Amino acid sequence: MVIFEATRIMILAAIAFLVALAVTPAWYKFIKKHHVEKQIRESSRAPIFHRFHEKKAGTPTAGGVIIWGTILGLAFLFFLLAKIFGGPFENFNFINRAETYLPLIALFLAAVLGLLDDWLGVLRIGGASGGGLKIRHKLMLYALLAGIGAWWFYFRLGWDTLYAPFVGNIVIGPWYIPLFVFIIVASAFSANETDGLDGLLGGVALFAFVALTTVAFVLNRYDLAAFGGVTIGALLAFLWFNIYPAKFFMGDTGSMSLGITIGVISMLTNTALFLPLFAFILVIESLSVIIQLTSRKLLGRKAFLSTPIHHHFEALGWHESQVTMRFWIISVISSMLGLVLFFLSRFF
Fold first, then answer.
1. Cβ distance 92 to 8 under 8 Å?
2. Is the omega angle on the peptide bond into residue 60 within 30 degrees of 0, that is, cis?
3. By CB neighbour count within 10 A (0-12 exposed, 13-18 middle, 19+ buried), where does 141 fall?
4. Over the stretch 176-223, which tens digit does the pLDDT of each residue have?
5. Is the peptide bond before 103 cis (omega within 30 degrees of 0)?
6. C-alpha distances in Å from residue 49, one per residue of 78, 252, 335
């Protein structure tokens, strides 16, 4: 059974990789033709960012459609094939009410909202640098989606426990709702802040999904693990074109959907306390922004040369690809540490 499920997940990941790779040229041609391009406005509040990234203005964006489009497309396709033909196609259907309904719905809703934000940016509508939604508006949307998810988990599924390493499940009652909202909002915000260098978020998210997929597999949630495998395959194909120099950007449609989905899976597997290790770079990126804003307000000066922190290292003289590769290495190490802690707390 375990070998069969592992093989199934790897086959689904390979299919997702090939499908995403195959559809990329057509999507790239579409966004180029319709000028779905990144807009970078000059800002006195972020002169370092503008200096390093003004040359990227005009690069196609909304490449995240490749990732979530592949995931949702394969989920729907295999679901239909399983219903119509049954047999072997049932082995590839990973739509499961208990395991994948919520992450699939969250992925879709966040992707649509992110795509709207990307389109506003293309039209240069909105108060954000380059157009699009302001951070506070994004946080409100994240909170709205998280609130819906929290309601479902607590009132419909009856979830009210938090797993603490080496302690076990702790009943937290109604506190589960604000915890859920915080995890989802933090994951989405952090993913959005991390998406600032070629290949950075794609790689960081890849390692986070590898860790969460491993956890889901160990917990015998095989359809959720299959969902994770498909996401990994799609991310690998996306990175094929997104590594430096990027052919196109992920856009908010990618970062928002990936961030929220990471948070949802961590709650589904009850591993929220492991998430800071599974997604360590996401945590550091968002913390750097919070520290910078706090320092400006309270001390009247910046704590970093520029934030999110990957821009700080650019300002120090690190090449963009150096920052990305080193952050990838940190992500691999932290994800491995998170998995070690998970296995130790579960089996010892």
1. yes
2. no
3. buried
4. 999 999 999 999 999 999 998 999 999 999 999 999 999 999 999 999
5. no
6. 43, 18, 29
